[in-house]
Structure formats: C-alpha cells, structure tokens
Amino acid sequence: AQSVAQPEDQVNVAEGNPLTVKCTYSVSGNPYLFWYVQYPNRGLQFLLKYITGDNLVKGSYGFEAEFNKSQTSFHLKKPSALVSDSALYFCAVRGSNSGNTPLVFGKGTRLSVIA
Amino acid sequence: GAGVSQSPSNKVTEKGKDVELRCDPISGHTALYWYRQRLGQGLEFLIYFQGNSAPDKSGLPSDRFSAERTGESVSTLTIQRTQQEDSAVYLCASSLALTPYEQYFGPGTRLTVT
C-alpha cells in the first residue's frame, strides 16, 4: 500500500522568510513524488516532481523540493515567501511497484504568508 | 494548448435528483481521473480510466456513482439520487499516461445538493 502524510494542516510564515511544507511517504518500490498547489476556487496546478536523478528538484514560481530517501520525505521549500504564495499545497506519490494505481494525495497543507 | 475543461462549473440540484458532470481531457492524454474534494478537505479518489483498460472504480463511494469515458476523450460522472453529503467540488484530471507523468486538473464542478 502507498500513502503520503502532510503533518501540518496550516503553515504560517512572514513575507520574505523561507518556507517549508512537509511531506513524508510510504510506497512499494521507488517513489514518484509530486507537489501541487491550489489557489482559492481554482483547480490544482502542478508545481514539480521527482522521478529520478538529483535530489533537489526545482519547479514553478521559485519552489523547490528535496527528496530524502532515508527519511522518506519530499519537503517543499522556497527561499523567500510571497503573499501570493498563500494557497493549499498537496503532496502526492506513487510507487514504481504499485501496478496501475493512480497518485495518492496527502490531505493538504494550507500556507498563509503574512505581509 | 487547451487544458482540462469541466462543465458545468456550478450545479445546484435537489436531493434525489440525478446529475451528470462532464470532463474534457487534454487531447492525447490516455489517463483520466475523477476526484472529490469536500470543503476544506483533501482529494478523495473516485475512479480512473487508462486507455482501453477497464476503469479502476475502487474509489466510488456507492453504487449511486458511475462514470463513463468515450474512447480517450470525454468522460461523464453520474450521480444518481443525490444526497446532501454529495455536495463537494468534483475535480477531473488527465495525464499522458499513468505516473510518472503529472496529472493536469480541470477547474472543477461545484455541486450543491439542497
């Protein structure tokens, strides 16, 4: 079985400060990891993914995520937060040995960037 | 190019009525997914289609829910005898194939059952 956990329901950060949104996972085989963002009253937008290669993945809007195999984590980061980054963030995973199963999504973390 | 589109954007229906939600995936995407998102909650997987394979219906919450897909194009999600707990945003996504390809989401259909 595959699963993903986002331990924080809410993250608050001051504008200009670095932000981290946490994600841990459990899969069979190698993980395929994704981050999505959902702005109010909008669908989900793809931010970045890790399939293989460098552990640090860079994505849209200045976001990056670091794959850590030993800690089974894929935390989302940004060096300097903007008020416009305030949104709901979802981590998703699928394992390479998971057959024909689709992505499993975390419950989401609401990021609030305060001016 | 065009993204995933869904219609209607909003649907208000009376309890007990049937509703049909439509999804137009990105052209060429063989995989199509339906999710449900209740207010302030995460994504609940409902069903997905991959090419000509039998759909994975494991996430459908009851036999009132069904979905069809015409080839590798349009999909409709049907909810029969709607209940108030069906009120949610229904999201459709498509991808080039199964993971590792990223899924692209439509804007969703907000269903309100009164």
Structural write-up:
The complex is a heterodimer of chains A (115) and B (114). In chain A, 0% of the residues lie in helices and 52% in strands. Chain A is mostly beta strands and 115 residues long. Chain A has a single domain (3-114), classed as Immunoglobulin-like. In chain B, strands 2, 4, 5, 8, 9 and 10 form a six-stranded mixed beta sheet that branches. In chain B, strands 1-3-7-6 form a four-stranded antiparallel beta sheet, with no helix packed on it. Chain B is globular. Chain B starts with a strand and ends with a strand. Chain A binds chain B through residues 32, 34, 36, 42-46, 49, 51, 90, 94, 100-108, and chain B through 4, 31, 33, 35, 41-43, 45, 48, 50, 53, 56, 91, 93, 98-100, 102-108.
Total count of domains of chain B: 1
Q: Give me the Rg of chain B, rounded.
A: 13 Å
Quote the distance from N terminus to C terminus of chain B.
Answer: 37 Å
Number of helical segments with 4 or more residues of chain A: 0
Shape of chain B: globular
| CATH homologous superfamily annotation of chain B | Immunoglobulins
Helix content of chain A: under 10%
Oligomer, anyone? heterodimer
Quickly give the structural class of chain B.
mainly beta
- Which chain pair has the greatest contact? A-B, 21 and 24 residues
* Average pLDDT over all residues of chain B: 91
